[in-house]
């Protein structure tokens, strides 16, 4: 979820629009859309923690062009250190404008997926998603849950404040999430909704604000060291700030990485404010190439190893939902030989509680195969 210019929660993965909507095409004939492209570059800010190689770059890009002016963040498009200059921001449009003007399009593996619906399906609100889940649950006589994410919470709060959705120092983004839960009477651990975030500050705020719905701490990473299957969090570019550590940690001068969350101490801390974790797949099962060859990558993976993350998380009472499972051969480790079901089965057999997938049918097919293994069929 993100927040629109008129303070509504919109169901969208990215804060920028060019790579996941038809906004660029719309701008060719809609002057109002065209002029909203953000072309002002961001500014460089020095990190607050020790500027050492093991901590990553010594500075990061920011949209805080003038720290004394809360509205200055509406000029540049830099999202948690990620530069999207010359793109459109979702926070520059009202919900109605997004519905009327903009249509979504395929983003991941776009060249391998159907494109006939590009630009034809409208951008919808978070409330729309809940309404759909409720309606379809009644029609199908089974519960359909909603799994929502507070995306880029610091950025969304600063944009929302600049747009008049809250006063400086407040959290209008999370407050809107709380209102959504309360309005729909789903602020309950038994309700069919999950609230997830990569940033612990967002989940902690929601808990203190009274959120009782199921909370999941997402855990990211930048790459895999295929020599031994270990995770890479620190890089020499902006990705250190995007996928290497929560952005709130960067702002606070905390040089730790997402890897800290995977330790016993980290899992214990997560259990104080969340009900589960959402790790990247190779954090659950390590991927390596043995013997290693220079330039080896995902397609060359020939060894898998249980990191025991599921077991350790379960000891802390945490659910484990891993991301993201896809069918395309280029997204599968070589050891699976192009069979996505084989990948699911590896995780199911380790006791994972749930998976994020772009191909639900394949996930269900694999679950049926796993049930058969267990003698449930």
Automatic annotation (TrEMBL):
It catalyses: a sn-glycero-3-phosphodiester + H2O = an alcohol + sn-glycerol 3-phosphate + H(+). Its EC number is 3.1.4.46. InterPro entries: GP_PDE_dom, PLC-like_Pdiesterase_TIM-brl. The keyword Signal applies. One of its GO terms (biological process) is lipid metabolic process. Residues 2-362 form the GP-PDE domain. One of its GO terms (molecular function) is glycerophosphodiester phosphodiesterase activity. Keywords: Glycerol metabolism, Hydrolase, Signal. Belongs to the glycerophosphoryl diester phosphodiesterase family. This is glycerophosphodiester phosphodiesterase.
């Amino acid at each position: 979820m993100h927040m629109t210019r008129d303070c509504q929660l919109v169901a969208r993965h990215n804060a920028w629009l060019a790579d996941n909507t038809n906004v660029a095409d719309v701008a060719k004939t809609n002057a109002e859309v065209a002029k909203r492209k953000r072309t002002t570059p961001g500014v460089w800010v020095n990190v607050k923690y020790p500027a050492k190689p093991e901590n990553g770059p010594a500075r990061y890009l920011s949209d805080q062009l003038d720290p004394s002016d809360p509205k200055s963040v509406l000029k540049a498009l830099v999202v948690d250190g990620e530069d999207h200059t010359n793109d459109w921001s979702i926070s520059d449009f009202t919900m109605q404008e997004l519905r009327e003007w903009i249509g979504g399009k395929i983003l991941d593996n776009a060249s391998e997926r159907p494109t006939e619906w590009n630009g034809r399906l409208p951008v919808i609100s978070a409330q729309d998603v809940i309404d759909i889940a409720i309606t379809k649950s009644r029609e199908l006589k089974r519960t359909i849950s909603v799994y929502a994410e507070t995306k880029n919470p610091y950025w969304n709060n600063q944009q929302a404040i600049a747009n008049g959705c809250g006063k400086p120092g407040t959290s209008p983004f999370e407050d809107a999430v709380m209102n959504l839960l309360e309005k729909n009477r789903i602020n309950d651990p038994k309700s069919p909704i999950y609230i997830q975030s990569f940033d612990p500050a967002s989940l902690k705020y929601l808990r203190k604000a009274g959120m009782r719905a199921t909370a999941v701490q997402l855990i990211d990473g930048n790459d895999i060291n295929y020599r031994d299957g270990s995770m890479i969090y620190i890089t020499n570019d902006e990705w250190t700030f995007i996928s290497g550590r929560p952005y709130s940690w960067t702002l606070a001068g905390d040089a730790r990485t997402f890897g800290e969350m995977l330790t016993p101490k980290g899992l214990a801390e997560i259990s104080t404010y969340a009900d589960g974790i959402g790790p990247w797949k190779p954090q659950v099962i390590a991927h390596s190439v043995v013997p290693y060859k220079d330039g080896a990558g995902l397609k060359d993976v020939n060894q898998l190893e249980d990191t025991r993350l599921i077991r350790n998380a379960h000891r802390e009472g945490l659910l484990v939902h891993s991301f993201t499972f896809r069918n395309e051969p280029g997204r599968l480790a070589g050891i699976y030989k192009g069979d996505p079901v084989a990948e699911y089965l590896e995780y199911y057999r380790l006791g994972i509680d749930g998976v994020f997938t772009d191909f639900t049918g394949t996930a269900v097919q694999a679950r049926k195969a796993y049930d058969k293994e267990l003698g449930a069929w």
